[in-house]
Every structure is written in structure tokens, then in C-alpha cells.
Amino acid sequence: MTVIGESVPRLEDRALLTGIGRFAGDQNFEGQLHMRVVRATVAHGRILSITTEDAAAMPGVFAIWTGADVADVPPINLRPGSALQDLEKCRQHILAQEIVRYVGEPLAVVFADDPYRAEDGADLVWAEIEELPPVVGLMDALGEFAPGISTEPAVFEKSYGDVDAAFAGAAHVIECELSVGRHAGVPLETRGALAVWNEAEDRLEFHAAAKIPHTNRIALADLLGLELEQLHLFEGHVGGGFGVRGELYPDEVLVNLAAMRFRRPVKWIEDRMEHLIAANHSREQTHRIRAATDAEGLILGLDDAFWFNQGAYARTHGATVPLISATMLPGPYKIPAYRTTGHIRLTNVTPAGTYRGPGRFETTFVREQLMDRIAAELKLDPLAVRRTNLITSDEMPYERPFEIGGKPIFYDSGDYPKSLARLLDYVGYDALQVEMVARRAAGEMAGAAVICFVERGGDGPFDDVRVEMDAGGTVEIITGVASVGQGVETVIAQICAETLGMDYAGITVTHGQTDRIARGQGARASRVTVMTGNATHKAAMGVRAMLLAKAAELLQSPVKTLDIVDGVIGVGGMSGDGPSLTIAEAAAEILRHRDASRIAVEETFENDRATYSFGAQLAAVTVDPLTAGVTVERFVVAYDIGRAVNPMLVEGQLVGGAVQGIGGALFEEFLYDENGQPLSVTFADYLMPTAAEVPDVECLVLEESPSTTNPLALKSAGDAGVTGAGAAIAAAIGAALGQPGAITRLPVSPLRLREILRKPSQ
Amino acid sequence: MATTRIQLNVNGTEHAVEVEPRHSLVDTLREACGLTGSHIGCEHGVCGACTILVDDEPVRGCLMFSVQADGKQIRTVEGLANNGAFNALQQAFHEQHALQCGFCTPGMLMLATWIVERDTPVSDDQLRDLIASNLCRCTGYRNIIRAIRAVLDQSGNAEAGP
């Protein structure tokens, strides 16, 4: 029975289409208090006093906390194993202690019996703050950010090969400075949390958890001084993740602490303005990169330095984004020698964490603009330069001689030139370029370009899955994974259904409930289908073996002659004439002699190697010379996923990611004024693409290079759409202008593009 | 704060509720009427997750005060299915994978309900322009447009050309 590979509709949809989802705001507990956070309105300052009397006198206000009330709670830790523990000293307290360091930093919290009243109370909390000069610019001169902490608390180098020799022997050296602006995932549901102290069980319950419930359970129990058994997390529906939602922020800790102290349920839903100034930002980095090439454009070495704007504090991700940036910059090209120095900078803006495609969106832009610059300087075709440098199939598997998180960078499989050729064929590349030349000759600014990238996913180290079956043959899969809307339930059910020879539609997938399974890794880093999928397969194989053994006994046929098709176990899978029995009958028979209501098999899948897959994207754009507005005419994502469990859902990831990336390429940016005041605090300032700004993204889902890292041969899908989008749009604009490599900064806002248009063409 | 009693007809059911003048309509639907299908994404009228139909016109539930809706007929996502069976739009969204996290979906469905019920031909460009009223962060819009187009084609509201 094949259900892996089928574009079956999702199990998740019914509740979401009928309005009975359980998002954070949809959940309520009897007697709950509502929490409202009072946030700093200056970027840097010393707290002289916080006056709460007026707020406390408001009707319905139950309690108000300031920093002094939570001074005993330690700052939020970086994730265990997060490299560069130097950043430990830059951690954030859950409420500001003495100094505020960004607009949006939690200063106080108000608890009231109604959310409107909590907000009324918060309006009357008055903080007297002596303003201090803020650090706003990423590239400002080094200084002291906080007592004993430099504005550059960590610097690291990643390198391999002899970079100096590469430059000494170069025919050409091409140098540029390239920057990506400050973006964030901005899920459509804002953050929210509900915490309840369960008196009967003597435990704290954190509802509306997301992304990494088991990881957060350990971190939160540690912060709150609870035994692990005294804390459970429960995931409901999650209105988008993108790396942002579900990290442990000050707000979530405050909700839980309050429920614990008050012994009363506490609910918190942030508003959109809070989200834009308080949830993790990401992306912002500037690279100064040099390429040494031979006369034909073959890169002999890259020498890079970059600066990453961490904002005011280190958060749970630590140095994840700069480390991925450093290691993924070389992408799909050979690049025999490479060196980069990552400078992590602190500034008085909202702290940063990951955002879908962390470190790849940024460095794919940098690398691909560099390729265009090489083409321009050597008077070569941009596509030809890429082809010259691509890793070829006979070099696979390809190891970059450095590591990330203790693991080597090991491209497991791929035929990059072939996949690129598939994209070119699909779009009719040569004819498209002929058309673009003609349009430019006719005076239009129109252009198309192709960029290449490598995606990383399937991150270990492990996943546990328990497959349970009751006497009726009904299956429940329990995992420590989480859903952020990507379709995890459907994909996991498909893998289980294929293994057990049954319909996927009746399978329940339970995730994000820490009281149901001891460990879990959540939904991050495009890992779910690979890791949870293989664990599911393993556990389902265990159940299958039990069913077949029982059937062999009952049917008096050797196990090896039996198969399961459409829920029926029979000889050779033929359920027609020969003796057969249903899965339910076999399950009932197994359970008849046992003191259990369910068959249960739990398995762990461990993997210390990530999957690496190739992708290429094409963008075709026009530029309006008057407004400097960019219209995206066509956007195509080709991606070699190796093996797609559900091609429709893979396409969904690619299309959605691409549009998010187009947002970062053209519109989205958190801007600040010289005082560190945020200028992007509503959806009228932080501009995400609507249907009017994007074309129907086309996908070419390739299944050419199955992964060699896992038994199901799966690779990742979640980040592949977004990764190349900034690069593709920038390259296409360069083509439209007749100046490949002209774009130096994302997003390419009309203002920035006008500056380029005004410069005389080189 | 003083409250006012208002009468809302939501999906054919009468709700008499006490509201403060400052309560938004979407808050009242969610908290007083218990209908949490309409979502709150921005509270400043941009994202459209709270889109509902008030007297058959699409309205941002976050930008209308509850008292302004007194006596009006309101339709929300909870009213679309018929005894648990998807209506044509829900079915099309399901088949075309027009939702991922599902947070924007109720607003998209109600906007789409208005589009397909208008009995006015809709070109592809017009459909794209109409859907641009609401934000989706997951799908990239392609499948939402395909789903609505499929229903328009079934109901004969597709326009032959521009």
C-alpha cells in the first residue's frame, strides 16, 4: 500500500476550517487573571522609579510586579549546547533590573480580572527613566554596552583551506559589502500563554505551548525551581511558528510564575505592536566579502567577515544564526578555501533569534550577489559562473572540512548541475532571457535570474515515537514533535499507514503534550518529517511485526508469506480467496491475553547527520523607473527533496516560504530612528506581502537524490522556499537594471532602488 | 465601566449580550458569544483574520464596536458547515491545501464567502486584488486563490476575460 508519495489532504484541516481550533486566545480557565506587560518606551535608560499606586487602585487589578518582585528568578538561559557560551553574560531578566536596553523590554506586569482592565492598569504604571545614549548602528565603533560587556561580546572564526594562498594566486579579486535588514517570522497569531496551578496534581500546567514543549519544560522548570515532574506543557493549535513562536521569552516565564505564586490561572495574549517590538527579530547582518578567482571565474577562495545584530540581549538561540551563517555561506559551490569571522554585536534594539531559513536566507543573498559581481567584473554570464563553481555529482558525498555544533558539514547526496538543468528546462530559460533582452532593448527594465542554494534540515539528535493500537485496530501515534501548521499530523500518519498497510485517515497523531511522552525535540530546523518520520516508521515496524506474528499463528502461515493491505492481513497480501484477518482482529487477539488496552511500541531514531539538499530559484521582475517599485512576474522554486512524503504539502512549504522570502527581499524591515525608537510597529509599517504583491509561485519538486542519512531517505522541506528568495529577487533586479550584482542591501525598498537608478550605470 | 445590552443575530442564533461601549465586535463574538473561530491577528484592521459578514458585507471585527452591530445579522466561520459537512468553500480549501496554520483561514473563508455570493463575475486579477485585503503568512496565497477560483467556476461566477 503506497501512501508515502501521495498528495493526500490533511488530517489537520477540519477543526481549522470550521472555527473550532484551540489557539492560545481560544482557551480559558475558570477564575483566570489576565496579564498585561508594561514595556520600556526608551531604548536605553536607568530606571529611577516605577509608580504603581494609581494602577493598583483601578477596578479589577489584582497585582502588579516590577523587577524587584522577580529579582530572584535567574535570567533566561541559552539553549543547552548552544555554542559561544560567552553570550551567557548577555542574558535577559524576565523584568528589567535597573536598566532598560530596548524599546519593548518588559518593565512591569499588571494582573487583572479582565484583559481590558489589565490594559487600563498598565496604562497607569509610570516609570521614571533617566535616558542613556543608545547604541543603534550595527557597524558603530566598539564600546561598552553594559558594565563589563563590550558591544561585541563574541567573535568567532570558521575556516578551511589556505585562503591566503588562494588570494596570492588569484587572477581576479572581487570585493563587496552586502547587508540584510532586520526581519522576523511574524506569525499571524501573536504569542500567548495560559498557566494553571493544578492543586490536585501539585504541578504547574503551561497551555498554548508551541514549537519545543519538552525543551521548554526543562528550561522553565529550572528557572522556576520546580522538579521536572511538577511542570507539564500542552500544545494547542499554533498560528504559525517560523522559528519565532514557542521560544522561551520573559512573558511566558512571567505567566507561569504568576500562576505558581497566585495559585490561580493566568492568561496572556500579546497585541501586534508588542509582538513586533518584543518577539525575536532576526536576519540583520553585514558582510564584507572578497573572492579570489581564476581567469574563468572559478572561485579559488573566499575571505569574509560579518557583523550580526543580536540586539540588546542574547536569547535562547545564543549564536545559532551567526554560526549557521558562517557555515552555510559556501552553499553549493566548491570553494576550496574559505574563511569567515563572525562578529556578534549588541545594540539597543529588540533581541534576535531564528527566523525560517536562519543564516541561509542571508548568506544565500550574499553569495549569489557575489557570483553576479564576479560575472560582471569578468564579463561572464552569471549562470555560467555558477555552473563553473557548482559541486558535481562525482564529488558527492561532499564534506566541507569544518563543523557546526560538533557535526561535520556533509552534503549527503545530490546532482546539483542536473537539478539546475531541470529548472532551466522547466522555465525555458534561454527563450526567457532572449525575451528579457528584447524587452530591455525596447526600454523596459525587465530581467530574470537564477540562483542556487543548499538547504539543511533533518536535524537530530533523536526523536522518540510511540505507536499504540487498541483492540479495534485504531492507531494513535504519540511524539514529542510540535505542529506549527506545516502538516506534521498528516505526514506522520502517512508514514505509519504505509508501514502498517492501513488507511492514514483514521490515525491520530498526538504531539506537544509532555505528559504523554518523556522526551521530544519539537518542530525546528526543518527536522520533523526526517526525524519523527523515521522514528514513526521504526515504531510502526514493531507493531507490524507483532500483528504479523499473531496472524502467522492464527493463519498457520509463515510470517514471510504475509502482507497487510488495506487493513487486512493475508497470504501475499491477497485478501480475496485465501485465509485472512483484519488488523483489528489480530490486535484484539494480541490484547486478549494481556493486561493492557493497547499494543504499544516505542522507538527512538537517532541521527547525528543533517540532510543537505540542493535548490535553485528563478525570479523574473520588472522595475518601474518612476516609482522604483518592483513587480515580481514569475517566481519558480526547484528543489531536490529526494523523496516527498506528500508532494502537495512540500509545495505548500516551498510556495509559502518563497512568499515570505519575497517579503524580506522587497518590503519587510524593522527600522529604528537615531534614538533607538522602533519605526515598524504596525502592519502598516512592517509590510508583509499580500496576494497583490506576489505571483503564483511555481514549484518543481524533484525526487532525484534521496538522503543517505536515514532509512526512509527523506530530506527537509520547511526552509527551502525562503532560503533563496532574497538572492533570486536581488539577482533579477540586477538583471533588469542591466547591472548584475548592483544590489547591496535587502530589502530592496523603492528608496534604495532609486539611489541605484540615479547612479550612472558602470 | 457601564455596559449596554445589545442583540446580535449570529449565524441565525440570537444573542443578547452585555457589552462595554469600547468592546470590539470580535471580542464580543469570541468572549460573550463563545464563538472563537474569528481570530484576532492585529487589532488595527490590516490582517483581516477577524473578517466577518455583517448584514452580508465583509467587516473587520476588530474595527467595529459591538454596540455598532446591535440588531445586525452576523455571519462567522462557525456558520459555514452544514451539520458538520463542509460547504463548497471549505471543501475547496481542504482539497487545494489552502491553509497551513489555519489562523487566517476563518477570515479568508468569510471574505471568500462574500466574493462567491456576490453574484458578480470575478476575473483572476480582481480575485487577487480582493484577497489582498487579508494577510496569510503560511500559504503564499496561491492555493487560497485556486480554491476560491474553483468555487467561482462551479457557481458560474468566473469572468470570461478582462
Task: Write a structural description.
The complex is a heterodimer of chains A (762) and B (162). Chain A is of the alpha+beta class. Chain A has 19 helices and 31 strands. Chain A folds into 3 domains: 18-133 and 190-238 and 245-278, Aldehyde Oxidoreductase, domain 3 (Alpha-Beta Complex); 359-457 and 612-758, Aldehyde Oxidoreductase, domain 4 (2-Layer Sandwich); 459-606, Aldehyde Oxidoreductase, domain 4 (2-Layer Sandwich). Chain A has a 7-stranded mixed beta sheet with strand order 3-5-1-14-11-12-13, sandwiched between helices. In chain A, strands 9-17-16-15-10-31 form a 6-stranded mixed beta sheet. Chain A has a 4-stranded mixed beta sheet with strand order 20-28-29-30, sandwiched between helices. In chain A, strand 28 and strand 29 form a beta hairpin. In chain A, helix 9 (360-378) runs parallel beside helix 18. Chain B has helices at 25-32, 88-95, 105-117, 124-131, 142-155; strands at 4-10, 13-19, 51-54, 57-60, 73-75. Chain B has a 5-stranded mixed beta sheet with strand order 2-1-5-3-4, sandwiched between helices. In chain B, helix 2 (88-95) packs across helix 5 (142-155) and helix 3 packs parallel to helix 5. The radius of gyration of chain B is 16 Å and the shape is globular. Chains A and B meet through helix 1 and helix 16 of A and helix 2, helix 3, helix 4 and helix 5 of B.
Strand and helix layout:
The complex is a heterodimer of chains A (762) and B (162).
Chain A: H1 13-18, E1 33-39, E2 45-51, H2 53-56, E3 61-66, E4 99-100, E5 106-112, H3 115-123, E6 126-131, E7 144-146, E8 149-150, E9 154-160, H4 163-168, E10 172-180, E11 192-198, E12 203-209, H5 213-224, E13 231-235, H6 250-262, E14 266-269, H7 272-278, E15 285-293, E16 299-311, H8 320-328, E17 338-346, H9 360-378, H10 382-389, E18 398-404, E19 407-411, H11 416-427, H12 429-441, E20 445-457, E21 462-470, E22 475-479, H13 488-500, E23 508-511, H14 528-555, E24 562-565, E25 568-571, E26 580-582, H15 583-592, E27 598-606, E28 611-623, E29 630-640, H16 647-666, E30 698-702, H17 720-723, H18 725-737, E31 745-746, H19 750-758
Helix pairs in contact in A: 8-9, 9-10, 9-18, 13-14, 14-15, 16-18
Chain B: E1 4-10, E2 13-19, H1 25-32, E3 51-54, E4 57-60, E5 73-75, H2 88-95, H3 105-117, H4 124-131, H5 142-155
Parallel strand pairs in B: 1-5
Antiparallel strand pairs in B: 1-2, 3-4, 3-5
